[in-house]
TrEMBL record:
<dbReference type="InterPro" id="IPR001753">
    <property type="entry name" value="Enoyl-CoA_hydra/iso"/>
</dbReference>
<keyword id="KW-0511">Multifunctional enzyme</keyword>
<dbReference type="GO" id="GO:0006635">
    <property type="term" value="P:fatty acid beta-oxidation"/>
</dbReference>
<dbReference type="GO" id="GO:0004165">
    <property type="term" value="F:delta(3)-delta(2)-enoyl-CoA isomerase activity"/>
</dbReference>
<dbReference type="InterPro" id="IPR029045">
    <property type="entry name" value="ClpP/crotonase-like_dom_sf"/>
</dbReference>
<keyword id="KW-0413">Isomerase</keyword>
<comment type="similarity">
    <text>Belongs to the enoyl-CoA hydratase/isomerase family.</text>
</comment>
<dbReference type="GO" id="GO:0004300">
    <property type="term" value="F:enoyl-CoA hydratase activity"/>
</dbReference>
<dbReference type="Pfam" id="PF00378">
    <property type="entry name" value="ECH_1"/>
</dbReference>
<dbReference type="GO" id="GO:0005777">
    <property type="term" value="C:peroxisome"/>
</dbReference>
<protein>
    <recommendedName>
        <fullName>Peroxisomal bifunctional enzyme</fullName>
    </recommendedName>
</protein>
<comment type="similarity">
    <text>In the C-terminal section; belongs to the 3-hydroxyacyl-CoA dehydrogenase family.</text>
</comment>
<keyword id="KW-0456">Lyase</keyword>
<dbReference type="InterPro" id="IPR018376">
    <property type="entry name" value="Enoyl-CoA_hyd/isom_CS"/>
</dbReference>
<dbReference type="GO" id="GO:0003857">
    <property type="term" value="F:(3S)-3-hydroxyacyl-CoA dehydrogenase (NAD+) activity"/>
</dbReference>
Length: 164
């Protein structure tokens, strides 16, 4: 939603400007990272702060380490947010994917560029063109996530953020 995008933008800018903040952790709520954008919002007029791509670029360009704590699902725009992060930790039961192709859309927040750089062209093309969801264990093997945990994902992401 626009409110989530604005909160991400505001939070990142505030964290980058605050010298006491050493790292940033992005997580979802209620055991889910993000199932992506609400496609009903695609037809509404774009307003300032309403596009996901610039927010993901802002995450990626942060001078402070940004860690994604992925629980549940990171799909579509949610995975693209995670791809913008410098590090990704996933719960062992998490699933990731870019399912928008199944309704005739391509990832629109530069996921088609970030994913191949991270996991290689063949694996990325498979994910982008099929829309399949991959489990965290496969994401780790591909290099999509840096670590998987069975414990509290947020605590593990905070530990990683403190370490880096």
């Amino acid at each position: 939603s626009r409110a989530v995008l604005q909160a991400l933008e505001d939070g990142l800018k505030k964290a980058d400007a605050d010298p006491s903040v050493k790292a940033v952790m992005i997580c979802g709520e209620n055991g889910k990272f993000s199932a992506g954008a609400d496609i009903r919002g695609f037809s509404s007029p774009k307003k300032f702060g309403g596009a996901l791509g610039p927010i993901v670029s802002l995450i990626e360009s942060s001078e402070k380490p940004v860690v994604a704590a992925i629980e549940g699902v990171a799909l579509g725009g949610g995975l693209e947010v995670a791809l913008g992060c410098h590090y990704r930790i996933a719960h062992v039961k998490a699933r990731m994917g870019l399912p928008e192709v199944t309704i005739g859309l391509l990832p629109g927040a530069e996921g088609t560029q970030r994913l191949p750089r991270l996991i290689g062209v063949p694996a990325a093309l498979d994910m982008i063109t099929t829309g399949k969801h991959i489990p965290a264990t496969e994401a780790l093997k591909l290099g999509l996530v840096d670590e998987i945990v069975e414990e509290n994902t947020i605590e593990a992401a905070i530990r990683l953020a403190n370490k880096v």
